[in-house]
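Hi V.,

Quick status before I head out on leave. The structure for the redesign project is tokenized and pasted below; the design run finished overnight.
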């Protein structure tokens, strides 16, 4: 008898029975007049309601993170959704908070980022595509500032901006390597000043970071005004406020700033708002959405991008620092398949039982557990189950987790939804409700910038040291002297390894982290360090997901997985 075909994510999504968004809002006691509807199944929650609601006591906060990603997949977003559904099943009022997917990876590698299997957020196609237009608003606000910079140069350059020292590029929400380096203003004086520039992807924009960290419109406008767009010939910074651009930028972002409410397949509430990448930005959803969920729920479950060395570190050292948040528990997601890859197994051989490879690859999980517990936080390891996993392989993981003093729980939420994660939910509640939390940041505000970077590299990545050219070291000194020394650090690094070499899986040692470039995001309030070959404008793969995404004769979307 032939095997029954496994339904795709989009097949499962098409079978979903969604509730009108008013009914989802009612589960959180959000009144209908606080909603701005975007169709039947999604809405924004008004900022007036937010301002009143966050005065109430906050519930418990659970962060979901993961081991270092592999092509085998870990299922961090899927686990976030499954855990949220499971918490609701065991009697806790729970809300999940996710980032909005970028069109870049949706049409590039991933093909979608709204969870998977029977642990998804809905409406899946809308969320993965244009959604409520937030990314378009962020793109427009960023590029308005870009246009005003070139317009200022064309009409006399009263601020004395050095065209060769402009650091503000343009952005678009798509992977396009051909736009990394461009020349603007060609064609004579009527077209502006000719200069070299480029494009970043929207999720790497400082406007995205500001959007996700701002808690009201006044803060949004003030942060936008602090953006450093470039420097004069005397190396003095020029800001968006000096160009009088921040007011108009805030106008473009006003409606987008309200959090987006949607639902899971099990009709539980979910906020999906903001979307910076964690390998090139700070990797967390908006503070507004997180704080609103905390005020409405017993438990808020949120995720931070990629592995715990990237998203979780930035969540804890940047987002929590600015927003005054304190997580109650951390869930670290792993799969047997991914641990095998960290143990040296090729992707084509992952279905074959191989406890020895899991034993070799477990060092990656162990380092991530050590990192999270070093922040003073309790950890639960979620083993995201695949059908090819064996009990012997599970036993390897559970044995090592016991030695580390953390609980490992197998979860089957991809196949069974919230019911498959009830054991995980109970384990999370058990650690979250114990008064053992001693959360602290990795480094103090007054540590010098260079030492902050070294601390992250040595304590989180396991590096021997950090290195940089004399030009970059001088720039660190200049930023320190300019008053940016108290800023936290946002590392741009490959997600595939603790090191800057994506091919070094497991737990590499004895390596240095070279800081290729350092820049200030003065509006966001952090310093960005670029390492290795990391790009702020990704390219499409040889066979992009876009090749299989299509419409059928009835207008139904195909291939979005």
């Amino acid at each position: 008898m032939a095997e029954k075909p496994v339904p795709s994510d989009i097949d499962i999504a098409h079978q979903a029975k969604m509730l009108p968004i008013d009914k989802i809002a009612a589960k959180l006691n959000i009144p209908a007049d606080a909603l701005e509807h975007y169709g039947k199944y999604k809405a924004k929650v008004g900022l007036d309601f937010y301002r009143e609601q966050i005065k109430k006591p906050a519930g418990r906060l659970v962060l979901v993170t993961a081991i270092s990603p592999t092509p085998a997949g870990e299922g961090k977003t899927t686990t976030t959704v499954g855990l949220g559904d499971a918490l609701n099943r065991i009697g806790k009022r729970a809300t999940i908070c996710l980032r909005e997917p970028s069109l870049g990876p949706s049409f590039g590698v991933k093909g979608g980022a709204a969870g998977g299997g029977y642990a998804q957020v809905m409406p899946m196609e809308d969320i993965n595509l244009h959604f409520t237009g937030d990314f378009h608003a962020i793109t427009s606000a960023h590029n308005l500032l870009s246009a005003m910079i070139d317009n200022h140069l064309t009409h006399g350059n009263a601020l004395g901006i050095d065209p060769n020292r402009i650091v503000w590029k343009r952005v678009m929400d798509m992977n396009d390597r051909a736009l990394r380096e461009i020349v603007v203003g060609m064609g004579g004086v009527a077209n502006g000043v000719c200069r070299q520039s480029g494009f970043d992807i929207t999720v790497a924009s400082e406007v995205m970071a500001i959007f996700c960290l701002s808690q009201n419109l006044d803060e949004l406008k003030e942060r936008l005004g602090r953006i450093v767009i470039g420097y004069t010939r005397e190396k003095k910074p020029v800001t968006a406020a000096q160009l009088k651009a921040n007011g108009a930028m805030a106008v473009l972002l006003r409606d987008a700033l309200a959090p987006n409410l949607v639902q899971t397949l099990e009709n539980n509430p979910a906020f999906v708002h903001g979307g910076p990448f964690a390998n090139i930005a700070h990797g967390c959803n908006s503070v507004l959405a997180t704080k609103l969920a905390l005020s409405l729920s017993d438990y808020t479950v949120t995720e931070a991008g990629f592995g715990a060395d990237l998203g979780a570190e930035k969540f804890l050292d940047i987002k929590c620092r600015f927003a005054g948040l304190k997580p109650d528990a951390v869930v670290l997601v792993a799969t047997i398949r991914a641990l095998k890859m960290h143990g040296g197994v090729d992707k084509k051989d992952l279905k074959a039982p191989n406890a020895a490879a899991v034993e070799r690859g477990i060092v990656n999980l162990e380092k991530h557990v050590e990192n999270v517990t070093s922040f003073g936080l309790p950890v639960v390891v979620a083993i995201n189950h695949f059908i090819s996993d064996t009990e012997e392989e599970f036993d390897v993981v559970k044995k090592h987790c016991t030695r580390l003093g953390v609980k490992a729980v197998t979860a089957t939420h991809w196949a069974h939804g919230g019911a498959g994660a009830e054991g995980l939910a109970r384990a999370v509640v058990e650690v979250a409700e114990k008064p053992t939390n001693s959360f602290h940041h990795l480094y103090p505000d007054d540590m010098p910038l260079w030492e902050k970077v070294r601390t992250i590299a040595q304590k989180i990545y396991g590096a021997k040291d950090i290195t940089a050219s004399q030009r970059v070291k001088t720039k660190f000194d200049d930023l320190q002297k300019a008053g940016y020394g108290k800023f936290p650090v946002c590392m741009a690094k490959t997600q595939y390894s603790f090191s800057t070499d994506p091919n070094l899986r497991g737990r590499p040692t004895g390596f240095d982290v070279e800081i290729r470039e350092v820049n200030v995001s003065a509006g966001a309030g952090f310093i960005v360090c670029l390492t290795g070959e990391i790009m702020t404008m990704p390219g499409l793969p040889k066979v992009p997901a876009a090749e299989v995404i299509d419409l059928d004769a009835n207008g139904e979307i195909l291939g979005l997985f």
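Above is the designed sequence. The chain has a mean pLDDT of 95.

G. will cover questions while I'm gone.

Best,
W.
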